[in-house]
């Protein structure tokens, strides 16, 4: 019992320490561990991906094997390290793992890089900045479209890059945070419905969906509590299901409702217009809404930190 209480207490302290490190230093500019993992994941893909003419079931099986080869050795290595280290070192390891898993300050910096030129009417710079964090075509985006793309990215990545890693850190400790971050990275690399990745990336996409299911619903509630509650919950319930992602849809709809702004709609991806459902209610997006979306994330992080410290 004492060990469990000590573990939970160290989890709360490690969370606060990791958040402080992230706000002070942001993501490492050099030698980021996810860069090395990305190279390892690319090697696993080259090793195991089959030609597209091979049966879908075989491609999926190799995708499962590639996911396991890419992720499981790191989880085993971290588990062994935590087992071998003295208990007082677990706090340091947990703090560093969570620090590497979250991207709170990075998300704020990317948002500021969009908002500042947008405030001055420098649309080319704003398009370039938003192009770094979204996959849609940005060359001809108007001012409201730039703001909309930035807000959507902030709301979705608030869940993926901040709240979900914290959730799995609380539930499974450092191994949980690492499992989530590596799985989410593989989804970003392999989880596309292109001809070459449709079946090979199936496992990466499904694992990410499963790991995000509960955190995403908690983020819906978080956005609602930190913004317009009734509008956020109504939009999440009515609009979230129509989005292409089962987790991003409710999160973005709730965020848009919390901010009382209209998101979604038609967007250009790789030269082709895609019609997306409308998310949220209220005004057309502006740079002020982009600033408020970051404030919504900040409030949510504060609420989570306080609740975690109180409850555990």
TrEMBL record:
Alphabetic keyword roster: Cell membrane, Cobalamin biosynthesis, Membrane, Transmembrane, Transmembrane helix
Entries under InterPro entries matching the protein: Cobalamin_biosynth_CobD/CbiB
Membrane topology: Multi-pass membrane protein
Role noted for this protein: Converts cobyric acid to cobinamide by the addition of aminopropanol on the F carboxylic group.
Protein name listed in UniProt: Cobalamin biosynthesis protein CobD
Any one cellular-component term (Gene Ontology): plasma membrane
Family as reported in the entry's similarity comment: Belongs to the CobD/CbiB family.
Superkingdom per UniProt: Bacteria
UniProt xrefs under Pfam families: CobD_Cbib (PF03186)
Cell location: Cell membrane
Coiled coil: none
Pathway per the UniProt entry: Cofactor biosynthesis; adenosylcobalamin biosynthesis
UniProt keyword tRNA processing present: no
GO BP terms in the entry: cobalamin biosynthetic process
The organism of origin for this protein: Marinomonas piezotolerans
Any one GO molecular-function label of the UniProt entry: threonine-phosphate decarboxylase activity
TM stretches of this protein: 64-84, 162-180
Record has Transmembrane as a keyword: yes
